């Protein structure tokens, strides 16, 4: 077990991988290009509300993620769906109320915010083993070791596990020797989870929509938001609505998007919307440490779990991991955890 392992990325997959490797006795360092932990898990706390601008929900069939939550003593609660939903078909007509269908799949959220799982994993791993603001630029193979070069220093290691989205990995890090051409081709055509999402949340001092028999769920064909959900805390001390914006609004200013959202919410819920406390948002395609921002269209989940990602490279010292490389639930939190488990099993076997 006297092997030094560097993991690229301190999101859910990278942190889970490090946590599991440490349990097996390996020495692990995590290099994170960003100045924060979490990757595409991003919870902002304001006015007692836990605003999820990244990954939010899990489901009962997410068995690996649920098991990890149990191991870390993380509690879940049901997404509140009680009451009528609203649907806006056309600008010329007001949103219509309808009953949500019974027996639908229950969605769960994490008590105190999704970032709780990130914080608990980081505590288990030890902050001294996690290096932020450490963007890797080169990975070179010398005989039976790899050197990992960041903007700050160079590390000599036995193994490298990348949890960086494959397309970003290929385009942001120089490999010597180069990776196989089929890996480069597939990686450049692999969809990056969250890339197409603009998430927003708006905080209020009361959940006024509930008094009118509404669930907070809304859908719109005309935008600016396309989906909307109740986003209050399980403790009922923070009240918010959260949803997804039309991707075509990405080039507007935040102030312009905010004004459009408020105008639409007033059509859904009335003048009480004017009393909102906070508006916040996240345009994921503009996150340069998460994805490549260009005009290339890639279908959602395209090449997630592709066979080329299941191999190891650079004399079996480099593993390409992360949720996009998982064959099951690729592009979700569950895929991130399952892929971490697979990689740890592969390394311990090797």
UniProtKB/TrEMBL annotation:
Which InterPro entries does the record cross-reference, listed alphabetically? Amino_oxidase, FAD/NAD-bd_sf, Flavin_MAO
Amine oxidase domain: which residues?
Answer: 90-347
- What GO terms are given for molecular function? oxidoreductase activity
Reading the lineage from the top rank, the first entry is Bacteria
The UniProt entry's sequence similarity note says: Belongs to the flavin monoamine oxidase family.
- What this protein is called in its record is Amine oxidase, flavin-containing
UniProt source species: Tenacibaculum jejuense
């Amino acid at each position: 077990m006297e092997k030094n392992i560097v993991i690229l990325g301190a999101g859910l997959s990278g942190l889970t991988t490090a946590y599991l490797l440490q349990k097996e006795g390996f020495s692990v360092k995590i290099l994170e290009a960003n100045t924060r932990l979490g990757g595409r898990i991003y919870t902002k706390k304001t006015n007692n509300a836990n605003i999820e601008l990244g990954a939010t929900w899990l489901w009962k069939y997410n068995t690996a993620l649920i098991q990890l939550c149990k191991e870390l003593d993380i509690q879940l609660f049901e997404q509140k769906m009680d009451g009528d939903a609203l649907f806006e078909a056309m600008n010329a007509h007001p949103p219509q109320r309808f009953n949500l269908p019974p027996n639908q799949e229950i969605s769960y959220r994490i008590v105190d915010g999704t970032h709780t799982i990130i914080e608990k994993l980081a505590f288990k791993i030890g902050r001294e083993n996690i290096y932020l603001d450490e963007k890797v630029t080169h990975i070179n193979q010398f005989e039976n070791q790899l050197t990992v070069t960041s903007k700050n220093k160079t590390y000599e290691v036995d193994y490298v596990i990348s949890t960086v989205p494959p397309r970003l990995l290929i385009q942001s890090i120089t490999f010597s020797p180069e990776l196989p051409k089929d890996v480069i081709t597939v990686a450049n055509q692999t969809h990056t989870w969250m890339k197409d999402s603009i998430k927003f949340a708006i905080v209020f001092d009361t959940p006024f929509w509930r008094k009118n028999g509404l669930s907070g769920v809304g859908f719109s064909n005309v935008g600016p938001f396309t989906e909307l959900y109740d986003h209050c805390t399980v403790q009922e001390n923070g009240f918010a609505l959260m949803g997804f914006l039309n991707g075509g609004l990405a080039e507007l200013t935040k102030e312009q998007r905010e004004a459009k959202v408020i105008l639409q919410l007033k059509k859904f819920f009335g003048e009480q919307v004017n009393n909102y406390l906070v508006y916040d948002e996240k345009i994921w395609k503009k996150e340069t440490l998460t994805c490549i921002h260009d005009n290339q269209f890639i279908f959602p989940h395209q090449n997630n779990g592709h066979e080329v990602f299941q191999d190891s490279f650079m004399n079996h010292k480099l593993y390409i991991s992360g949720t996009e490389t998982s064959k099951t639930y690729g592009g979700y939190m569950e895929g991130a955890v399952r892929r971490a488990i697979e990689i740890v099993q592969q390394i311990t076997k090797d």
